[in-house]
Amino acid sequence: MSWAYHVIENLGVRVVKLEPGHVRRFLLEKDFGFSLRSHEEQTSHEAEKSRTKSVSAQEVALNCRHFWKAGNYDDSIKSKPTCQNGIGYLHIHPKFLHSNATSHKWVFGAVAELLDNSVDEIQNGATFVIVDKTSNPRDGAPALLIQDDGGGMDPEAMRRCISFGFSDKKSQNAIGKYGNGFKTSSMRLGADAIVFSRCRRNRRLTQSVGLLSYTFLMRTGQDKIVVPMVDYQFDRHSGTWKALHDEQYLKNNLSILLQWSPFSTEAELLKQCDYIGTHGTKVIVYNLWYGDEGKMELDFDSDPEDICIFGSVKNTSRTEASDQHLANRLRYSLRAYLSILYLRVPENFNILLCGRVVEFHNIANDLKHPEFKVYRPHHNEGEVLTTIGFLKEAPAVNIHGFNVYHKNRLILPFWHVISYTKNSSRGVVGVLEANFIEPTHNKQDFEKTPLFQKLEARLKTMTLEYWLVIYLFE
């Protein structure tokens, strides 16, 4: 297959080389912008509150940069219920942003959830998603960039995207379901996220910018989540972008965006949209969280072509074969994890991590003596085909377990259904797609329903039967 790949010039990405089996390098401009949408109900009150209670741009760093300690919001500020036309409304307190993000215990799980949004855009023509390090132009601090060339979001779609508990993904094959992924994942990775999106729909070209900032909410003492957002539409007659809001709305939202985002002028802010092209979405998470060691959780330095988890990379050359196996490397190497994150990926779609294409890997291809087992979980749920076999490296590697996917997305990698202490599963690995059970909201486990328990019992039996027949009698 030819890996020839073309990206329009104003995307901010230059192609150098794409050939099978070789390093695919993309030179990424490090001044990528950010793009996101906000709620419609932004008022001049919030903007004025921000101006009167805020601090200088150089002082926006959080007092606590450790994620698990950053939830100490001022509890003296309470969410206030309001009443309109006899109907009660309860504002969501900013502290919920942090508590909601704690569902992601593993930082790569948060990265994967952001990528899910881009992979869902394949149905809208997306051909790539970029994951890379960029920098905050205000202070030069590292930030995380995720950008795709999907259909993008118009102003209304962006507002639906950032509303809690709403999902407009109608496709049965869409990975996202609850409409909560962006908030939980971005806030788990860093204190602040800015998003840009361009969309061409119904012969109308729009661009939107929004900011989800825990720093802003905490520093200004907000008692509800405020997401500043501005929208523009391209005017064909004048060849310019026109704001879709009145002057006061634009002034109020821009004042917050320019004070708390990485950009200090409207021109700098909107220039970032040009890197998207005619359609797509770009997310940048900044003020990234730190770990227990006082170092940033995401390690951009250990490998220039990878993003790792700080402190997890082993520097010794005397590592065992098991340590170097994909099953262990995926715990700290984003490149290893992304290589198996999706069971099927179209040939014309690429994930570009730190300037190099991720090589997709099917674990089933690593198995020797493979067998194919059909499992019928329920009379209405159809059939599930499970591939089971020995790793090619077995028994030299202490690896075993099942890789369980849901709607093409890896949920449980190398799930241990049997304890290895009995030496009855060493090297036995399986792959299956279980769409009949429901994943948890963070997509790192399944709900422990009776259907899940039945699957677990069946996989245990399957492992023992395979190991006895193949291993003992080969």
TrEMBL record:
All residue ranges annotated as the Morc S5 domain in the record = 332-467
One GO cellular component term, please give it.
nucleus
Q: Which residues form the signal peptide?
A: none
- Determine the domain of life of the protein's source: Eukaryota
Q: What is its main location?
A: nucleus
Please cite one Gene Ontology biological process associated with this protein. regulatory ncRNA-mediated gene silencing
An example molecular function term from Gene Ontology annotations: ATP hydrolysis activity
Instruction: Supply the Pfam families for this chain.
Output: HATPase_c_3, Morc6_S5
Which UniProt key words apply to this protein?
Answer: ATP-binding, Chromatin regulator, Coiled coil, DNA damage, DNA repair, Endonuclease, Hydrolase, Nuclease, Nucleotide-binding, Nucleus, RNA-mediated gene silencing
Keyword Amino-acid biosynthesis among record annotations: no
Q: Which residues cross the membrane?
A: none
**Subcellular location, record wording:** Nucleus
Task: List the PANTHER family hit by this protein, alphabetically.
Answer: PROTEIN MICRORCHIDIA 6, ZINC FINGER CW-TYPE COILED-COIL DOMAIN PROTEIN 3
Concerning its family, UniProt says: Belongs to the MORC ATPase protein family.
> What is the protein named?
Morc family cw-type zinc finger protein 3
